[in-house]
Amino acid sequence: MHNLIKVVAVCGFCLSVSLGCKQTLPKEALALSADSLKLRQLQTRRFETNSDTRVVRATVGVLQDLGYNLEETESTLGIVTGSKDRNAVETGQVVGVIFFGALTGSALPIDTKQKIKASAVIRKNAKNTSYILVRVNFHRIVWNSRNAISKLERLEDPKLYQDFFTRLSKSVFLEANSI
Predict the structure, then answer these.
(1) What is the pLDDT of residue 128?
(2) What ranges do the domains of the chain cover?
(3) Considering the domain 33-176 in this protein, what is its CATH number?
(4) pLDDT in the model for residue 108
(5) Which three-class secondary structure state does DSSP give residue 154?
(6) 45 exposed, middle or buried (CB, 10 Å; 0-12, 13-18, 19+)?
(7) What are phi and psi of 139, to 5 degrees?
(8) How large is the greatest C-alpha to C-alpha distance in the chain, in angstroms?
(9) Which neighbouring-strand residues pair with 119?
(10) What is the three-class DSSP state of 15?
(11) What average pLDDT does the structure give for the chain?
């Protein structure tokens, strides 16, 4: 009986400590940033067709034309993902590391390789099925000379998205007209 009281007391103490440490989610954590709408507009385009299958095929073709290796294509869900490996060495970073090494005698890692990933979601508009919405996002993972991840970032260059959607528009047109 004495051991049971100790166990209950320890459990009660642990429970009170854990309840006292309860963290709440700040209100601003779920709020959209001022740039969210701008980013969504950059990443999304509307195509005047009701064939999401054609748009998925066109998206696959554009990503392959841009050098992406397809990782996943799920036509029924409207999901296409791909990636490509690229060199990440930047002259400015190499010069800075050499300069730093000359001053301090220590070597810093430099970025060496990167994987650029593309994810596209293709879906009919729930309210109006006469057009298809395509949202694509690009991000990259960069590894340094110590094989550690040095950057993980979303790519937000408007030219990247404009180029993708220009190609996709042409491809959707060609698909729709069987050219």
Answers:
(1) 77
(2) 33-176
(3) 3.30.310.80
(4) 84
(5) strand
(6) buried
(7) -145, 170
(8) 85
(9) 81, 137
(10) helix
(11) 83
Are 111 and 150 in contact by the 8 Å Cβ rule? The answer is: yes
Express as a percent the part of the chain with pLDDT over 90.
Answer: 49
- Among all chains, which residue has been given the structure tokens 């690229």? 86
Rounded to an integer, what distance in angstroms lies between the CA atom of residue 127 and that of residue 135?
17
**What's the token pair of residue 117?**
């990933």
DSSP state letter for 129: T
Judging by beta carbons within 10 Å of its beta carbon (0-12, 13-18, 19+), is residue 79 exposed, middle or buried?
Answer: middle
- Check if the beta carbon of residue 55 is closer than 8 Å to that of residue 49: yes
Instruction: Name residue 52's amino acid.
Output: D
Asked if pLDDT for residue 15 goes beyond 80, the answer is no
> In this predicted structure, what is the pLDDT of residue 96?
81
pLDDT digits (tens, 9 = 90+) for 76-97: 899 999 999 998 888 887 778 7
Measure the CA–CA gap between 122 and 101, rounded to whole angstroms: 49
* H or E element in which residue 134 lies: strand 132-144
Kind of pairing, strands 69-74 and 44-47? unpaired
Specify the 3-state DSSP secondary structure of 174. Answer: helix
